[in-house]
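Q: I'm building a small set of examples for a reading group on sequence design. Run inverse folding on the following structure and report the sequence directly after it, with nothing in between.
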């Protein structure tokens, strides 16, 4: 492992699959625009393509295979132990497809982010691009939020909005949303690294010292140069 740099926020990234958000975070960190040290990438699926991305970057790639544990509590405990070996200041869920128990969520309260492909609180859960089109929406997008026990339900920090074209297939829409995700997540993580954002004792987001009333909008933010 690279020697810790006190100026960089240590993070651990959880994945289950492709790893394109992981790649975007690594690219931004490598460019110097994102002040993090990615200490480890952990997948619950041994075949996750993102594991190869981590290895290629020289980052410990760990598998905690959920299917080998008798229940969620045992999986959560193993996952937590694997994460805490790396002492992250922030846990980053990037396409991590397992529900996490209340004890696990409480342990990382205020220091666990997730990215979800919808304008939360609308469309939690799976298959959001197809559902947005089927519902006749004109707009879709992605949200970065703090993780709570409710699936895709924690307080939302920042969103990217994407117009839906009448001709869009779910795949076309997903591709445009993903492009935005790759700008959105590094920015949100950088805010956390700069201590511009935190959760207060009642679980509300405080941004630049002021309670955040509604999620910030990527379109009006200066994105990272990476
Ligand atoms: C992204 O769409 C993310 O919003 C969702 O899962 C997908 C992960 O994609 N939570 P990738 O593995 O980062 O490419």
């Amino acid at each position: 492992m690279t020697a810790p740099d006190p100026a960089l926020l240590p993070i651990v990234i959880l994945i289950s699959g492709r790893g394109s958000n992981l790649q975007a975070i690594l690219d931004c960190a490598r460019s110097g625009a994102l002040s993090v040290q990615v200490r480890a990438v952990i997948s619950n699926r041994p075949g996750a393509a993102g594991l190869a991305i981590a290895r290629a970057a020289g980052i410990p790639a760990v598998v905690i295979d959920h299917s080998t544990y008798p229940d969620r509590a045992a999986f959560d405990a193993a996952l937590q132990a694997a994460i805490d070996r790396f002492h992250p200041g922030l846990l980053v869920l990037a396409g991590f497809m397992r529900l996490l128990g209340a004890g696990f969520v409480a342990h990382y309260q205020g220091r666990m982010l997730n990215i979800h492909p919808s304008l939360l609180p609308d469309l939690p859960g799976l298959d959001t691009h197809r559902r947005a089109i089927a519902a006749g929406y004109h707009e879709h997008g992605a949200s970065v939020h703090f993780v709570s026990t409710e699936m895709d339900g924690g307080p939302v920090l920042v969103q990217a909005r994407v117009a839906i074209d009448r001709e869009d297939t779910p795949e076309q829409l997903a591709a445009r949303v993903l492009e935005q995700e790759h700008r959105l997540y590094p920015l949100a993580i950088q805010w956390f690294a700069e201590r511009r954002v935190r959760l207060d004792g009642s679980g509300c987001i405080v941004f630049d010292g002021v309670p955040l009333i509604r999620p910030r909008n990527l379109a009006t933010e200066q994105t990272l140069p990476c």
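Residues 9-220 form a domain with the Rossmann fold fold (CATH 3.40.50.170).
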